[in-house]
Design a protein that fits this description.
heterotrimer, A mainly alpha, B mainly alpha, C alpha+beta, A: mainly alpha, Cytochrome C Oxidase, Chain A, globular, disordered N terminus, C: alpha+beta, Immunoglobulin-like, Cytochrome Bc1 Complex, Chain D, domain 2, 3 domains, five-stranded mixed β-sheet, 12 strands, elongated
Chain lengths: 531, 221, 312
């Protein structure tokens, strides 16, 4: 073994170029992590301002146009720059080769190109902010055709980002097909990898459709193609069909990796095998496939036919069942376990609870009669954030804490991190729970102004952002200042492959490709199972 | 590393996208850690997945076509009759022929017949160029008549679909061009032909999509 | 706690039933999962690093249970959701049609007797109504929380809403499909009147009702019109910049137009701008204002002018 190979991946090369031109999946994962972190913070600040505006009805600190720009910025940045590429590209890159026992992904250079494309797309997106769009992140036509903002640039940026997603997805799928270590059969694959696999499938199959949609939208603005413009014989509902054909599966692109994360965290801190491994793995795939058939439930009141509405409503409930199964599986993994409430575990348990609320409120929206009332109100906003924050972001935070020792080779202050968790958990619920009630009362979303009777709930929601922000800052503070001393290779006594090496891992992960002989999550003793 | 170095390195790697396929370069960085067989089948699987995304991209256009044709049958009938079927047919034949030549190139490299590979890739690229020239005449003829994207929905679809396809023809030409250059440099042999094979796959897709576009646009009714 | 708006249409009780049904299911599920979560965490907390744990990997009975029960619940919810939706989308035979046109950022309502109203929809109680709706520009959505009805409006296609009001009173109309800068000011009111009052409104004798308000000084009437007729969506009265120029200090001011000309803002200029807004576009603003010709009477316009005069 040469001297160089003994260095860990963080020490192997210094300076800008050693990162920017690296093909090391771990470094690429870390770069994604930084990039999405920055965009997350920018988008979160936008939402903070949006909430602040709602302290009083009418104008508080900004004009209606600024408000519209800010919620568009928040939505599009969170969706396209943070949450869609987020967990999959950062933790997926870092973890998949480690978990399946490979030295890298199968196309290391393509991996780097994907990251560059991501940066390029993000750069175009940022340039577009010179005349920021006020269309909402959904870019519904014909408003997005008429709007005076830089819609072309912003959609072109998203198109490039989509390209990056597709290439990453292809890379992951092929990696998992071709580079699993000997003995790493599909039914021994960690559930995070299963989730990443399902996510990648969605990215590969759904993203092209939004790609062509956005290209057509650009053509619409350049040439007046007329596909989506009623004034030219086009159909705005067609745009919505195209858009949601991607954007609904995209919801699962966002949530599946987080489900994968907590499927990793919970067994380790319960010292139990995951309950119903196969059910979770197949549920991931089932969710991925069914999610292609439910896009119309975003459009129950947009003017599509009654029959189509009924069909989409039925299929929507079909996707609810595998989701429910997963929740119970995680829950039952705790049963008779030896539970340690580490920070990562707290985020994972919060995920279960908040995601349950997010999922259950989805049942309201899937019911046709109720959706007619709730569509495009704050109820939808709250539902979506319970899934996206309570689900994905909490899963993302769980991963940040759980794999922190592996990534950075240091430990963090668990106590402070737990306080941050409590603040974030409380803040989150204070922000979004009142919005369910606002929604049922009929408060429409994307409203700069609102009736005075909604003020107390709006204010409560705004106060929540202050608690949440405090918690988030404390979390960053804690993670930015690691404890002195090197982290052990396996601080949690985990049985997964990524913990079998030093923290942080060496540049080439494994000196020798391991051979897998046991099922994954092989915790606990087999005695009681027999009885 | 200065700004200039970074820029040139980025540009260089973008100029040779085929380097994304691992087999093309020597194993310089230690991250190519698997045997040729894995590389070869992996690259092929990756390409098939990519082709699936391309099909879905055009799938959006085909869906729009179907919806608007059902909505405006007369407009589609009328618009379709105004297209030049002769040029369209010629282009179809050219593309099918170029698919054949690229297939021969892939077969030839597996038999190490480098000269044949060069000839076949040249023919393919020339066919693509002829296709592009024909398309240019078709477009400018339409523009002269005052028909542009946006004239009506049929022409919008016509220009959008053939335009996006044209873009793929250009990308295909660039890919084949890079491959050809590397063939001249002697980079490929019967033990190392993954790049040519997946480049050929891409070209078949370009051809395949045209085979659908042609009857849908030119031969309505 | 009151978490639902007033219920004022025949459709509302059905929606409320579904909302209650799902709420009860959700609350029970949440309590169950939350309880188990906390209970397990406490009961099975780590006592030592050497805790023995059983290797339970599956349990067919439990898994069947939590597959079947959610499936049944989902089916039940779907069926109720569908049944009430079906009632809502089926147009009663004796329904009276009212045409609705949306544009940035106001609603106009055309009645079968030739009447036309702005941002105010008048309907009789107990009478099935069918709204035939279309947008003049971008997407909008017609939403009356009290009726639990909502439907998007588009440019090239009519969409419909059926409802039968069951309560007299005035209820909010919101636009719920994002439609640009003044989206949140695209508001209206539904007036549900008794049969008699509606009849008198319909044959024009409702004028008398309005006459009562004309005892007010004209500027005061203008102030009401300002919010009722949708002026508020674009024009501020406190000097803040909006989609259109502010009304504050407008009267008597020199107006500079996009074509470089200018004029002193007097009564005739304001009246022209209300009736033919495209004629003179103030510099820095877009030609977006719709004409109010036929929507406001001369006396209304006078009142608005008086109101603008009062905004110094």
């Amino acid at each position: 073994m040469s001297q160089e190979q003994e260095k860990n991946y963080l020490e192997n090369g210094e300076g800008f170029a050693s990162w920017f031109f690296t093909v090391d999946h771990k470094r690429i994962g870390i770069m994604y992590l930084w990039a999405i972190g920055v965009f997350f913070i920018i988008a979160a600040i936008a939402s903070f301002l949006v909430r602040f505006e709602h302290l009083t009805p009418g104008q508080t600190i900004m004009t209606a146009h600024t408000y519209n720009v800010l919620f568009t910025l928040h939505g599009s940045m969170m969706v396209f720059l943070f949450i869609v590429p987020g967990v999959a590209a950062s933790f997926g890159n870092f973890l998949i080769p480690l978990m399946i026992g490979a030295k890298d992904v199968i196309f290391p250079k393509l991996n780097l190109y994907s990251f560059w494309l991501y940066l390029l797309g993000a750069a175009v997106f940022m340039i577009a902010l010179a005349a920021p769009a006020d269309t909402g992140w959904t870019f519904y036509t014909p408003y997005s055709i008429e709007s005076g903002a830089n819609v072309i640039l912003i959609t072109f940026g998203i198109f490039i980002l989509g390209f990056s997603s597709i290439l990453t997805g292809i890379n992951f799928i092929v990696t998992m097909h071709k580079l699993r270590a000997p003995g790493m059969t599909w039914d021994r694959l960690p559930l995070f990898c299963w989730a990443a696999y399902a996510t990648s499938l969605l990215q590969v199959l759904a993203t092209p459709v939004v790609g062509i949609t956005l290209l057509l939208l650009i053509g619409e603005r350049f040439f007046g193609l007329g596909f989506f413009d009623p004034a030219r014989g086009g159909d705005p509902v067609l745009f919505q069909h195209f858009f949601w054909f991607y954007s609904h599966p995209a919801v699962y692109i966002m949530i599946l990796p987080a489900m994968g994360i907590i499927s990793e965290v919970i067994p380790v801190f319960s010292r139990k095998p995951i309950f119903g491994y196969k059910a979770i793995a197949y549920a991931s795939l089932a969710i991925a496939l069914i999610s292609f058939l439910v896009w119309g439930h975003h459009m129950f009141v947009s003017g599509q036919s009654k029959l189509i509405n009924v069909i989409f409503s039925v299929i929507t409930y079909a996707v609810a069942v595998p989701t429910a199964i997963k929740v119970f599986n995680w829950l039952w993994t705790l049963y008779k376990g030896s539970i340690e409430l580490s920070t990562a575990m707290l985020y994972s348990l919060a995920f279960i609870f908040l995601f349950t609320i997010g999922g259950l409120t989805g049942l309201f929206l899937g019911a046709l009669a109720a959706d007619v009332h709730l569509h495009d109100t704050y109820f939808v906003v709250a539902h979506m954030h319970y899934v996206m924050i309570g689900g994905t972001v909490f899963g993302f935070f769980a991963a940040l804490h759980f794999w922190y020792p592996k990534m950075w080779g240091r430990m963090f202050d668990e106590f402070k991190a737990k306080i941050a968790f409590v603040l974030i958990f409380i803040g989150f619920n204070v922000i979004f729970f009142p919005q369910f009630i606002l929604g049922t009362l009929g408060m429409p979303r994307r409203y700069f102004n609102y009736a005075p009777e909604f003020q107390s709930l709006h204010q409560l929601s705004t106060y929540g952002t202050w608690i949440g922000a405090a918690g988030f800052i404390l979390m960053l503070w804690t993670l930015m200042r690691p404890l002195p001393g090197k982290a052990p290779g396996n601080p949690y006594r985990s049985l997964s492959l990524e913990w079998s090496m030093d923290s942080p891992p060496g540049t080439f992960n494994f000196d020798e490709i391991p051979t897998i002989t046991e099922p994954v999550y092989n915790y606990g003793t087999k005695i009681e199972e027999e009885s | 590393m200065g700004f200039f170095d970074v820029t040139s390195k980025v540009l260089k790697s973008i100029a040779y996208p085929s380097e994304m396929v691992p087999s093309i370069d020597t194993e310089d960085d230690g991250h190519h850690h698997f045997d040729h067989e894995t590389e070869h089948s992996g690259a092929k699987l990756g390409m098939w997945l990519f082709l699936a995304t391309e099909l879905l991209l055009f799938g959006g256009l085909f869906a729009a076509y179907a919806i608007y044709r059902a909505k405006y049958p007369d407009m589609f009938q009328h618009g379709s009759q105004s297209l030049n079927v002769v040029l369209g047919t010629v282009n179809t034949v050219i593309l099918i022929f170029s698919s054949l030549t690229v297939a021969i190139a892939v077969k030839a490299i597996q038999e190490n017949r480098i000269k044949l590979v060069k000839i076949m890739l040249w023919i393919t690229i020339i066919c693509a160029a002829i296709f592009a020239v024909n398309k240019y005449f078709e477009y400018s003829y339409k523009f002269n008549l005052g028909i542009f994207p946006g004239t009506d929905i049929f022409y919008s679809i016509y220009f959008a679909a053939t335009g996006v396809h044209m873009l793929h023809v250009f990308i295909g030409m660039a890919v084949l061009g890079v491959l050809l250059r590397k063939v001249y440099k002697g980079k490929y042999s019967k033990d190392n032909y993954t790049a040519i094979e997946i480049g050929g796959l891409y070209w078949h897709l370009v051809d395949l999509i045209w085979i659908y576009l042609f009857p849908l646009l030119y031969l309505v009714g | 706690m009151n978490w639902l708006p007033v219920s004022a249409s025949t459709f509302a009780p059905g929606v409320d039933f579904v909302l209650w049904l799902v709420t009860i299911i959700s609350v029970i599920s949440c309590i169950l999962i939350g309880f188990l979560l906390v209970y397990f965490v406490i009961k099975y907390r780590r006592k030592s690093d050497n805790d023995q744990t059983p290797a339970i990997t599956h349990d067919s009975f439990l898994e069947t249970l939590w597959t079947v029960i959610p499936t049944i619940l989902c089916i039940v919810i779907f069926i109720y959701g569908y049944v009430f939706y079906d009632q809502y989308t089926t147009t009663p035979k004796n329904a009276v049609e009212i045409n609705v046109t949306a544009k940035q950022w106001l609603w106009t309502f055309d009645y079968s007797n030739g009447k036309k109203t702005l941002n105010e929809l008048y309907v009789p109680i107990g009478q099935p109504i069918r709204l035939v709706m279309q947008s003049d520009d971008v997407l909008h959505s017609f939403f009356v929380p009290a009726f639990r009805v909502k439907q998007d409006l588009m440019g090239n296609r009519y969409t419909y809403i059926n409802f039968t009001a069951t309560k007299e009173g005035v209820f909010d109309i919101y636009c719920t499909e994002y439609c640009g800068t003044a989206h949140s000011n695209m508001l209206g009111k539904v007036h549900v009147l008794s049969k008699e009052k509606f009849a008198s409104w319909e044959d024009g004798s409702a004028k008398k009702v309005q006459k009562a308000s004309s005892n007010l000084p004209p500027a005061e009437v203008g102030r009401q019109l300002y919010s009722d007729k949708g002026c508020v969506a674009c024009h501020s009265i406190d000097g803040a910049d909006g989609v259109g120029p502010t009304w504050k200090g407008l009267f008597g001011k020199n107006r500079i137009f996009a074509d470089g000309t200018s004029i002193l803002a007097d009564e005739n200029y304001i009246k022209e701008s209300i009736l033919y807004p495209g004629e003179k576009i103030v510099e820095g603003y877009g030609p977006v204002m719709p004409s109010y010709k036929g929507l406001l009477e001369d006396s209304d316009i006078t009142a608005i002018i008086e109101y603008i005069k009062s905004l110094k």
